[in-house]
Amino acid sequence: MGFMDKLKKKFIQNNQEEVTTKYKEGMEKTRKSFSGRINDLIARYRKIDEDFFEELEEVLISADVGVMTVMDLIDELKMEVKRQNIKDTKEVKDVISEKLVEIYYGEDDEEIEEINIKENELTVILVVGVNGVGKTTSIGKLAHQLKNDGKKVVLAAGDTFRAGAIDQLEIWGERAGVDVIKQHEGSDPAAVIFDGIKAAKSREADVLICDTAGRLQNKVNLMNELAKVKRVIEREIPGAPHEVLLVLDSTTGQNALNQAKTFSEATDVTGIVLTKLDGTAKGGIVLAIRHELNIPVKLVGLGEQMEDLQQFDANAFVYGLFADMLEEEEA
Ligand SMILES: Nc1nc2c(ncn2[C@@H]2O[C@H](COP(=O)(O)OP(=O)(O)OP(=O)(O)O)[C@@H](O)[C@H]2O)c(=O)[nH]1
């Protein structure tokens, strides 16, 4: 049984078909482009040779997989093709799917990296990222999901810089049915977050999600602002923040990678929220982020609905990428 068949079986056994459907739908653009180009390659090359690998390399790079990641992946593929003595290009697609999962998880045990939510104590999540990437939307969706899981959630409107950011967060708070702590535009973000902590404590909340402004023009300012916010949080709650989530827009490709570099230099980013994966044909960015920056992707945006923010699962991701392979077989 091939890797993709095994994946399918595993998802069915675990009653996770809903997850695979979300990924399949959300990754349609990437699948059509990426998998389509690989199909085209396979049709043109009967035998696996150097030229085949060279073209495959181009396909992977143009899907934003990242040059370093692609090099490693191609090396792995070459070894595996030799080891299994694969001659037929048709079989190679299954090997690619397997290696993509392996390259994502790297040396780690294959394990989904969940958001770190503490039991019986207040969890503080700091959310950073530049404007327009889907930060507010993602905070709203996360709040909604945590609330559905039975958690009491409070939001702190720490983006006091962008006009309208506070109102927007309030709208999401209303939608999700959670409290939003705010001050006026232009006030000190650290002060808002301080208020948020006080409120979360007195209301016995389980999770406090803090929005922040993401001004990138000046790295020193960004660093200072984030450091100040973190100091306030650490002082009030030892061991917090429990997560620093960086929101990136997957449609921005290399820019997203550059933002990740800048933010991880400014603060300890513990996880990535990758939005708008449904809006790009270059979903390979997930692999580049993980492999080249070594920061786990914890959540992905697969659409505009509340439930479309999904925990990242590399197996489901690869399943979404190559789902047409299984349908071909079934047909
Ligand atoms: N299709 C799709 N759209 C998304 C996703 N996440 C966010 N969006 C959309 O992206 C747009 C920008 O999102 P916002 O949350 O308003 O952007 P922003 O991050 O608030 O800006 P800041 O709060 O200033 O950082 C909105 O129209 C969202 O609906 C996603 O995963 N898929």
TrEMBL record:
One MF term in the entry's GO annotations: GTP binding
Domain SRP54-type proteins GTP-binding: 296-309
UniProt topology in membrane: Peripheral membrane protein
Record localization: Cell membrane; Cytoplasm
Keyword Hydrolase attributed: yes
Keywords, sorted A to Z: Cell membrane, Cytoplasm, GTP-binding, Hydrolase, Membrane, Nucleotide-binding, Receptor
GO cellular component, one term: plasma membrane
InterPro entries: AAA+_ATPase, P-loop_NTPase, Signal_recog_particl_SRP54_hlx, SR_rcpt_FtsY, SRP/SRP_N, SRP54_GTPase_dom, SRP54_N_sf
Pfam families in alphabetical order: SRP54, SRP54_N
Residues annotated as binding GTP: 129-136, 211-215, 275-278
Coiled-coil ranges (or none): none
Reactions this protein catalyses: GTP + H2O = GDP + phosphate + H(+)
Predominant location category: membrane
GO biological process, one term: SRP-dependent cotranslational protein targeting to membrane
Nucleotide-binding recorded as keyword: yes
The enzyme's E.C. designation: 3.6.5.4
The organism's place on the tree of life at top rank: Bacteria
Purpose of the protein: Involved in targeting and insertion of nascent membrane proteins into the cytoplasmic membrane. Acts as a receptor for the complex formed by the signal recognition particle (SRP) and the ribosome-nascent chain (RNC).
Family of this protein: Belongs to the GTP-binding SRP family. FtsY subfamily.
NCBIfam families reported for this sequence: ftsY
Quaternary structure (record): Part of the signal recognition particle protein translocation system, which is composed of SRP and FtsY.
Name of the protein: Signal recognition particle receptor FtsY
Source species: Ornithinibacillus halophilus
Name of the gene: ftsY
